[in-house]
Amino acid sequence: MTVATAEENTPWAAPVYYVYQEGGFYFFSDPRSRHIVESQASGRSAASVHVAANTWKDIRGLQMSGHIRRVSIGPESARALAAYLKKFPFTSEFFSSGAPLKVEDFKQRFNVRLYAFIPERVYYLDNRVRFGFREKVDL
């Protein structure tokens, strides 16, 4: 997923690994990173998710606007982390202990926090339907 923000009319985009569940796109980021600082200051952000495309006919994905919120430690973060580790099992290679990983372990090892991009407006685009096909998704 690519997260986009802007400050004083200067846009910024940052790719992140994410997992989708419960209406949010969960990802880890450094709280000092530009996309987090700007999103928290403005309360607004955008994101896109798309498949790799070799031709224009293969382009499809989501265009979204919404906000990013920090996820507190608790049941929500535990569910998001479990889904994240399932989608990206290689992340456990960064940790030496065989104990189950917790969000706090990521904070300690990488100085990151768990965030969720919450979409408020979503468009699905799919050039397989026709060139320029774009449809609003009801949330």
Structural summary, described in words:
- This protein has 139 residues and is an alpha+beta fold.
- Helix content is 22%, strand content 40%.
- The chain has helices at residues 34-42, 75-87, 103-110; strands at 2-7, 10-15, 19-21, 24-29, 45-50, 60-70, 113-126, 134-137.
- Strands 1, 2, 3, 4, 5, 6, 7 and 8 form an eight-stranded antiparallel sheet that branches.
- The relative contact order is 0.22.
Chain-wise SSE layout:
Layout: E1 2-7, E2 10-15, E3 19-21, E4 24-29, H1 34-42, E5 45-50, E6 60-70, H2 75-87, H3 103-110, E7 113-126, E8 134-137
Antiparallel strand pairs: 1-2, 1-5, 3-4, 4-7, 5-6, 6-7, 7-8
Highlighted features:
139 residues; alpha+beta
Could you write a compact summary of the structure shown?
Helices cover 22% and strands 40% of the residues.
String of helices and strands:
EEEEHEEHHEE
Overall residue-averaged pLDDT value: 94
The beta-strand count equals: 8
Largest sheet: 8 strands, antiparallel
- By helix and strand content, what is the structural category? alpha+beta
Strand content: 35-45%
- Anisotropy-based shape: globular
Radius of gyration: 16 Å
- Which segments are poorly predicted (pLDDT under 50) over 5 or more consecutive residues? none
* Distance N to C terminus: 19 Å
Quaternary structure state of the chains depicted: single chain
Question: How much helicity do the residues have?
Answer: 10-25%
Q: How many helical elements?
A: 3
